[in-house]
Write a structure and sequence with these properties.
The complex is a heterodimer of chains A (about 300) and B (about 260). Chain A is α/β, with parallel strands linked by helices. Helices cover about 35% and strands about 25% of the residues of chain A. A 6-stranded mixed β-sheet of chain A has the order 6-7-8-3-9-10, sandwiched between helices. Chain A has a 4-stranded antiparallel β-sheet with strand order 2-1-4-5. In chain A, strands 12-13-11-14 form a 4-stranded antiparallel β-sheet, sandwiched between helices. In chain A, strand 7, helix 6 and strand 8 form a beta-alpha-beta unit. The longest helix of chain A has 18 residues. Chain A starts with 6 loop residues before the first strand and ends with a helix. Chain B is mainly alpha-helical and about 260 residues long. Chain B is about 75% helix and about 0% strand. Chain B has a two-stranded antiparallel ribbon with strand order 1-2. Chain B is globular, with a radius of gyration of 19 Å. Chain B starts with a helix and ends in a 6-residue tail after the last helix. Classes of the chains: A alpha/beta (about 300), B mainly alpha (about 260).
């Protein structure tokens, strides 16, 4: 199996005892692309990333990462891989610089290369003023940015990030993504990340939606959004069921979903929906017509 | 080259951590001196061994104790790394489990060795030892430190959480020390306990130190050396086999999907 893709996985799956965590993941990730994995808790996102990082052995299937076999060439993969876990993996007793030096040594860099790489990454990520500060004294945002510095210090070709922005304020989240954008732009690094934030996934080249251990949707965010409908109508109130039934009957509903308080329908002709709502006997308490989002895809496919 | 670099990184980090955990370091240094004063002083009033003072008899054992506690506790701190995520960082590196174990053994041996050296520096106050004795003691101390690090990693390989740490000191470390002939000659203890002492690697650490400091040892020098080398290799091999890299990740996914 030779491919220019950075990741080529076929039927990659993992069981924990009798629990099937990941059914069988088929995944192709182009070099230099940004790919997001979405899915509710327990969907298999972390399992998929840990397997691709060679840290969990797959129960079934196979994969090549950066041209290397996931099982027999794990060490070669790790050499060119950057990995960011859900919680920042830095030692609170060490300074920022000591943490980075430790990471550089673990990556196999010699003393000179470590010094050079640490200086470069500190400058690139803006860690200069914090360089000599103990990691335990950093805010959550700076801990995460130090973690990103740690994972990119050795100039990996592939970066895997497991929910990297959980708990970050918008400022640090934006800063983190701008660092990753620069990595992609300047060095063509491939990034595969999992997230719960739809807005982050919308900026990806491709999105993979996992649910209950299986891939339920895959594609470019814009394509996936178009699949929901031209627009999305949200309505609540006594006439909700009748409006939804009318939309389905008139074949105006591309997708339809019952929510906690009403209906969310992906429609083909937005104008007709407004007319139906206005004419509905019993009325609606809330009506909203808007563009489809990735969140709509998420709810449609994971419920 | 990359293996050496990884070992360098692991050792540097462990030494930096040890230097910053001042209370732990001071406690590790104070422990053998407290034993030397309290146990040595107490028993010294009622006991003489082989015609010499009890202080002189117990001294090699207290040096071994400093090495044992320093080395083993540093190695067992791998369980902290497992709990707080640093171990997965090491496992995700190209270094591999063998290199990680080698690095941890070396750093544990250095911490244990330095603590033992601090006690050994007091030898002139208690023993009539020559420069040759001290040189030999340095060698014994080094081998004992590696042995303690290897034993610590073996314990850490199956330890699930930091909550078990205190239990390990009471259930593993103290029995290893008490059954080593550090505090009393093994010749006089019941045969069942003597048998247990014979399979205790710390017995050979203490005995090797007695050889080095010119005291009456229990076993031959070659036997001590082989026993320590053999038990260290066995401990590291077992630790390598038991050290399941997936365990941390299985814990992180909670045995369920995520």
């Amino acid at each position: 199996m030779t491919s220019p893709n950075t990741i080529e996985a076929r039927g990659l799956g993992r069981d924990y005892g009798v629990t099937r965590a990941l059914e069988g993941l088929d995944l192709s990730v182009e070099a230099g692309s940004l790919v997001g994995i979405l899915g509710p808790n327990g969907a298999g996102k972390t399992t998929a990333l840990l397997m691709l990082a060679t840290l969990l052995r797959p129960t079934r299937g196979s994969a090549r990462v950066m041209g290397c076999d996931l099982i027999s060439e794990a060490s070669a993969i790790r050499r060119r891989l950057g990995l960011v876990f859900q919680e920042a993996t830095i030692d609170g007793l060490l300074t920022v610089e000591e943490n980075l030096r430790f990471a550089g040594r673990l990556a196999g860099l010699d003393g000179y290369s470590v010094k050079h790489a640490v200086n470069e990454v500190v400058q690139r990520i803006g860690l200069g003023p914090l360089r000599q500060r103990r990691a335990s004294q950093l805010s959550g945002g700076w801990r995460r940015l130090t973690d990103i510095a740690r994972a990119t210090l050795h100039r990996p070709a592939l970066l895997l990030l497991d929910e990297p922005t959980v708990g970050l304020d918008p400022e640090h989240r934006e800063r983190m993504w701008s660092v990753l954008d620069a990595e992609r732009r300047e060095r063509g690094i491939t990034v595969l990340f999992s997230t719960h934030y739809m807005a982050e996934a919308e900026s990806a080249d491709r999105v993979l939606l996992l649910s209950k251990g299986a891939v339920v949707e895959e594609g470019a965010p814009a394509d996936l959004q178009r699949g929901v409908g031209v627009a999305v109508a949200e309505f609540e109130g006594p006439a909700g069921a009748a409006i939804e039934a009318a939309l389905v009957r008139e074949q105006l509903a591309a997708t339809s979903m019952r929510t906690e308080r009403g209906w969310r329908v992906g429609v083909r002709e937005p104008q007709r929906v407004a007319q139906l709502v206005a004419e509905a006997p019993g009325g609606v308490t809330r009506f909203l017509l808007r563009e489809a989002t990735l969140e709509d895809v998420y709810f449609l496919r994971t419920r | 080259m990359s293996a050496i670099s990884a070992i360098h990184g692991i050792v540097a980090r462990d030494l930096q951590r040890a230097a910053r955990q001042k209370s732990r370091m001071l406690g590790g240094l104070a422990r053998p001196f407290i034993w030397l004063l309290l146990i040595g002083g107490g028993y010294g009033a009622i006991a003489r061994v082989d015609g010499g003072s009890y202080h002189a008899f117990v001294f090699p054992g207290v040096v071994a104790m400093a090495v044992l506690f320093g080395g083993m506790l540093t190695a067992i701190s791998t369980v902290y790394d497992r709990e707080f995520g640093m171990l997965r960082l090491m496992l995700a590196s190209p270094a591999g489990v063998g290199v990680i174990l080698a690095g941890r053994t070396l750093s544990a041996a250095l911490v244990g060795g330095l603590q033992g050296l601090a006690v050994l520096a007091c030898a002139p106050f208690l023993l009539d030892a020559t420069a040759g004795h001290y040189l030999a003691a340095l060698g014994a101390l080094s081998l004992s430190a590696v042995s303690s690090g290897a034993l610590g990693l073996l314990v850490a390989s199956r330890l699930r959480s930091v909550e078990n740490f205190a239990g390990v000191i009471n259930v593993v470390l103290f029995p290893l020390f008490f059954l080593s002939g550090a505090l009393y000659p093994l010749a006089g203890v019941p045969s069942a306990l003597r048998t247990v002492a014979r399979v205790n690697p710390v017995t050979y650490q203490v005995d090797l130190m007695r050889h080095a400091l010119g005291q009456g040892p229990e076993f031959g020098l070659t036997f001590d050396l082989l026993a320590l080398l053999g038990s260290s290799i066995l401990a590291l091999a077992l630790a390598g086999a038991l050290f399941d890299p997936e365990r941390r990740f299985l814990a992180s996914v909670g045995g369920a999907r995520r």
